[in-house]
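S2.1 Query sequence (Tyrosine-type recombinase/integrase)
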Amino acid sequence: MFNGTTYRRCKCTEPKLDDQGQPILNVNGTPKVRELGSACPQLDKRDHGSWYYYLNLPDGPGGKRRRPRKGGFPTSKAAKEAAQKLWDEATDGIDVDSKETVAAYLNRWLDKRVDFKRGTREEYRDCIDRILIPALGHLAMRELRERHIQEMFKQVWAFNEVKAANQITAQQAKAECEDAYRAWKQAPAPRPRHFRQRWDAAKAALKEARTKPRRNTGPGTQRKYKNTLAAALSDAVTEKLITENWAKHITLPKYERPEALVWTDERVARWKLTGEKPSPVMVWTPNQTGEFLDAAVDHPMYIMWHLMAFRAPRRGEATGLPWSEVDMTRGVARIVEQLSTNSSYEVWEDTPKSRAGKRAVTLDYATFALLTAWRDVQQAQRAEWEQKHRDDPSKYGPYNDSGKVFTQADGRPHHPSNVSQAFERFIKRLGLPPIRLHDLRHCAASLSLAAGLSMKAIQALLGHSSYQLTADTYTSLMPQFEQAAANAPVDLVPRRKAIEQATREDPPAGATTGDQTSDDEPHLYLVLPSVPPGEASDAA
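Output structure tokens follow.
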């Protein structure tokens, strides 16, 4: 049982008096006061004052006395229960004297996590500075509870509604701006001044609307916020700073990983009509992939894109691939490093995303031939650049021998963000249905799956740390292979009876041969319905 006591006191005050019994005054002439505390004569009233506890905890390090007290309890029983809980926590090793705030702890926690990769650290830093500290930083760690974290997410949801309204306003402003421009453009010369005034006002309104936040904080991002806080609080529990990880049981909108969808003819037609992508993650068909590669043959990044489309390195893995890790004798590329970047456009070398990310990728014959040719081209580019440097060193700097496979004319590796932007511009110019550069990995996985590779082999190709992740993402084949998969179970079942049975020399139109016991017996024909598969339910 705890060693302490409970008592009752209030906040009532009375003037401070000097030795002569006169009020002591402040500098501004007002009398100084003191709290009556437990000496207040009104404490015998049931609703006056509140209950406090006072604890005698075992001395801390260095013999430091620990005598916590706290008030505001409505009854003596409530104060005793709180005191007992604090005593139990202290007995279990919890630092009940800690005054550390959530802000101070989060900063200290991130500083000690030297095991984080730079990209992870920067993501956590952004979340802590922009989201967690503004909402929770003022609280003491020992005061933090689940309700505080839930309230933070309620504020995120409320702000999402504001951003949605801002998005609608921006769309309306854009439509007004386009309409005002058309009206000004189509007005006969000399154009009346009010057309130009309307257009200028619409442009100003659009500029103002675009300054307001419009991007929704979706379930995936909210889950990252929660996971960041949960990781920090997990260490706080280990430190005996708090008793429970309050972030674990927070309720958030359901998050579902975006499903990778193939750009079928129907989806392409819908996209051309509305400009909408069916999913954030889209995959080209083999024909669309071929159209892209054929058109990109003369692009400076063609060979890199070809490698990504068939052997599935990530963007950073492709841009960071060094020649020293490409075995041109065996045709194997070892993925052991990558180029990473952040919102500030900085680039640095790092290890792959996971342990499984370090992998050996066997090159297909086409990619191997392209890399062989590219190596000669790169050497010629180097000789040409070095000659330009000798001729005009003020204009051309020295050649940057980065050792990377894919480089610019001066030897520097491509910036990962530039590769993505060039890819997006190129496919937009071609008029192909849009995919992200990262979706070339999905194209490579889908093509490999359609070609008959096992899911385990595709996991190794992609460098996924989990088989389940690969299986959950790539469970559908390309459209042209789906019909064969659908027919396969039917072909396995022997049939003695058919929809229509006839003894004929020649099969009826639309019929397929059924089961047959001998050459002397008549054929059994299965006459398939003429209704297309998509209309079968209507026909029925």
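The first helix runs from residue 76 to 91. The chain has 17 helices and 13 strands.
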